[in-house]
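In this section we walk through a basic example: taking a raw amino acid sequence and producing a predicted 3D structure, encoded as discrete structure tokens. The instruction is simple. Fold the sequence below.
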Amino acid sequence: MKSKRYKKLPENTKELQADSIDKLLNLIKTNCTTKFDESIDLNFRINNKQKKSEVNLRSVVNMPGGTGKSVKVAVVCEETKINDAKNANADLVGGDDFIEKIKNGDLNFDKLICTPAMMVKLSKLGKVLGPKGLMPNPKLGTVTDDIKKAVNEAKAGQVELRNDKDGNIGLSIGKKSFDDAKLIKNYNAVIDALEKEKSNLTIKGDLVKQVFITSTMGVAYKIKMDKSL
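The resulting token sequence is shown next.
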């Protein structure tokens, strides 16, 4: 059942003509009528159903304006690198003992970074980390010896780009409290990341079919992109 608050929001907004993000942000923020600082979210519908194979995107984008979220970062590394991880402001750090805790279901973190040397041991926990989307991956920059860079990027505002089986990619580009310039910077960073990913794919036609913008408890509007992807 729709709440009284929701019933007051505009109806059938998805059917409206697509418009540029800079014009839509004011509408989105006006519709943020809850008491908390709502997230500003994007949903991309991509052309993932190809004749020879499906498109499965998995990458990351660094948000220049941040995300407004506090990220708890854990690092699994050799004993000789534990101080490096702590100096990089990782929230949780450990080696074999930490892996054992993870094995027992201690997943009190948002992002997990692992050095290549320890990945052999950590990879055995796929059934624990995989379903939570926490398994480190070299492509995502979370299997690395450059612990400082990985931790800094994770805390600064790094967001994963990953489509589901229906070709949807959902992610946040910030909060209602962000100024429009910051949100637009983050949006452009996502577009640039998708453009880069497309160049690495064998795909017929455009990669992105539609993109919508909404807030956590708001309604969606269709974005008109400046260029085809």
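Looking at the output, two observations stand out. Residues 73-156 form a domain with the Rossmann fold fold (CATH 3.40.50.790). The first strand starts at residue 39 and ends at 46. In the next section we compare this with other chains.
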